[in-house]
Amino acid sequence: MDTNRKIKNRYNKIAKYFDSLERPMGTSGFAKWRKEIVPQATGKTLEVGVGTGKNIPFYPKNIDITAIDFSKKMLEEAKAKYQDSPLKINFLEMDVQNMDFENNTFDTVITSCVFCSVPDPVKDLKEIKRVLKPDGQLIMLEHVRSNGKVLGKLMDWFNFIPLNIMGANINRKTKQNLIKAGFNDVKVTELWKDIVKYFYVKNEKLI
Questions:
Q1: Which residue range is the domain that position 42 belongs to?
Q2: What is the phi/psi pair of residue 20, to 5°?
Q3: What is the rounded distance in angstroms from the CA atom of residue 178 to the CA atom of residue 67?
Q4: In b/e form, how buried is each residue of 24-50, taking b as 16+ CB within 10 angstroms?
Q5: What does DSSP say about strands 185-192 and 106-112: parallel, antiparallel, or unpaired?
Q6: Main-chain dihedrals φ then ψ at residue 158, nearest 5 degrees
Q7: pTM here?
Q8: Domain count, the chain
Q9: Segment-wise mean pLDDT, segments of 10 residues, the chain, 207 residues
Q10: Would residue 207 count as lying in a domain?
């Protein structure tokens, strides 16, 4: 079984309990950060890895949202919670590695706590770049590997624990991965130490 399928199966199994498992993070700042970052979405918006829909309450009311997730069960949880939402949301089961969208489709792409678990972050970021319009914005709320000499090494050593339990890495170098994927204008704001960060990226490319 490939890595992608293993991770998908893990999320399918824990979908009903996911919000409970993540509750400690919800009370430690993530809800506040989502509330500050998600309203920056404009125009035709894609959320990658919508999960159970934690970002949905914070979207502006006047945008068109496409929300994708590769886990069918996680997507079902989001749909059940927000089926009566006044927002215009199109929920789709889809993998960011291979999206069924035309080039230059979206004005905004949003991710939150997604790029810790995707098997090939550079490949996935290239796909996001492809579907983003020229000068479109990529907004990311992600936890990453610390640059601290000791803490960074500890995160490398103990990465196997969350990786084997949930398929999530704690030592991803997201800024470097964005640059490898071809994004140049990467702005980073530290939200908690140098582990939780807000990435704002303008998509510079030829049409």
A1: 3-202
A2: -65, -40
A3: 21
A4: eeeeeebeebbeebbeebeeebbbbbb
A5: unpaired
A6: -100, 10
A7: 0.92
A8: 1
A9: 74 68 61 95 98 95 95 93 91 96 98 94 97 97 96 95 84 97 95 96 80
A10: no
